[in-house]
Amino acid sequence: MKASDLLTFAWRALSRHPLRSSLSLLGVAVGVTAVVLLTALGEGARRYVVDQFSAIGTNLLIVVPGKVETTGGMPGVGGAPNDLTLDDAEAVARRVVSVRRVAPVAAGTESVSHGDRSREVAVIGTTAEYAQVRKLAVGSGRFLPAGDVGHGRQVAVIGAGVARELFPSESALGGVVRIGDWRFRVIGILGAKGTQLGVDLDEVVLIPVGPAMRMLNRTSLFRLLIEVAPGADLDAVRTRVIDLLAERHDEEDVTVMTQDSVVSAASGILGALTLAVAAIAAISLVVAGIGILNVMLVSVSERTGEVGLLRSLGAARRQVLSFFLVEAAILSSVGGAAGLGAGYGLARLLARIYPALPAAPPAWAVWASLATALGVGLTFGLLPARRAARLDPVEALRG
Amino acid sequence: MIRLEGISRTFDLGGRPVHALVDVDEAIGAGEHVAIVGPSGSGKSTLLNLLGCLDRPTAGRYELEGRDVAALSETELDTVRRDKIGFVFQAFHLVGRLSAVENVELPMLFAGTGRRERRQRAMAALEAVGLADRADHRPDQLSGGERQRAALARATVLEPAILLADEPTGNLDTASGNQVLDLLDRMNDRGLTLIVVTHDPYVARRADRLLVLVDGRIVRRIAAAEVHSLEELFVPPDGEAPP
What we know:
The complex is a heterodimer of chains A (399) and B (243). Chain A is of the alpha+beta class and 399 residues long. Helices cover 55% and strands 18% of the residues of chain A. Chain A has helices at residues 3-15, 18-56, 86-95, 129-133, 160-166, 209-216, 234-249, 259-302, 304-312, 317-353, 363-389, 393-398, and strands at residues 60-65, 99-114, 117-126, 138-141, 155-158, 176-179, 182-190, 195-196, 199-200, 204-208, 223-228, 254-258. In chain A, the strands form 2 sheets. Chain A has a 6-stranded mixed barrel. Chain A has a two-stranded antiparallel ribbon with strand order 8-9. Chain B is an alpha/beta fold and 243 residues long. Helices cover 34% and strands 27% of the residues of chain B. In chain B, helix 3 (100-111) runs parallel beside helix 5, helix 4 (115-128) packs across helix 5 and helix 5 (144-156) packs parallel to helix 6.
């Protein structure tokens, strides 16, 4: 028997009972919709988090002075880590292949005041590179000037929140703020970017790194932010940075973290969560399968006489089996397709309502839900189909 | 064409054996027209189902066109039913959701015949029973006589060697019954072996000869011309009335 004839034959049988068929089809559709929609939400959450990290740059290496892991050195040898200096930053920028930019960071908290208004804010001493490395946008004015790393003029770029607080009625640009005992001219205001990895960029003041270290009385930098060229092997660059700094310090006394490892950990957790949610939603597909089982059992008992007739006309048991199996397969696959459409539609609607959450079902979930729907249909269709195929033709014709 | 030797068929009814056919011997030649008559429960339908390879005998040997049916596999039996044997039932057994022509196409559907050839042959078969103009009607849009003629077209579309008819006119009025019987006669005249199970003396008399079945045994073989009423035939030769 030809496949197309088989499909037509099964389709005709199903369309004889449109209500019954569409209800059991609906069960599958709801199940697939649930899988698609829930995985879309999970995937959306995952991508939201990844995007948040990526906004800072995934090709980022962070150098922290001091070694995190315990080393088995002799007491007294090694001891306190060497300072992480501006010269180190420059060496990394110039000598390590695939390093695009290095932004040194000195950090502390200071009171910042203008007139009689004062605020405790995070003060970050850095260079012009910082804007690119952390993908910051300047709302008005300009960012810290390039060059002149060691000394630096006393200029500041302030967060939008700080600007509002200290300069409530006038433009902050060109104004003078007092940071600790030092005076800085405001040359730029950061664009609103919200919170990045826990740092509220509205409540921050950026000044050149030289004055910052002197003002904060630091000899070591807080961090080096290294932007690696796109496509470069992050781990290889990380090793080269560690080697270079070890050579300069005569010992390995820095820790280099990759932004990527943090992102992939978070992404992995949310991915597993999505999988779990999908599995729970897939249970509804099994329920839908039982619906198909029920409908097919009714159908077989109603069509006992037809089965007998078909056998008398020369249909093989195998063919009778395939009639009913194909019916179950049609119910589950059409239901699956309908559920897929509905799931996609709802996910798109959701993404439109909450643009921050890029809700879109991952490809694996789409294929898995369709395959599960079809598998469930065939599995639960097998029992009634076998019952039909095993009917004794003489008995069947009588009943 | 058909040779039965010592055929018995026993059913198990709640642990008790029921002997539907007992030691039946018979030979039916190609092109014969045979009527099987007998009271209800005498085993007529069981015999017909055995002949149609829908059922297997408990004991005995059934040869169809020289081949021992018992030796045929399930798949071979399916093919025999499809290609060699046509069935006509009292209740027509048309598939309700399919049109007349689609019903006639069914055996060719199982054989994997192409769509165009299928339609062509089905239309020819419908033409032969005078139903070409009703080809696209569903069974519920056809009269009883038309339904049985459609069933007849379906039974003969693959040009089988044997046509088995179980009370073919049982659900029909006299006029449409006659139409069906005339068609059967005509097909028989063209060489189709025709075996009819019936209660109706009028139908039975159209056969060449009658097999009288009582309690699963062939009690009498008689030429149609000698039959006056069927009831007299059902009395076993020893004179006792069947229970």
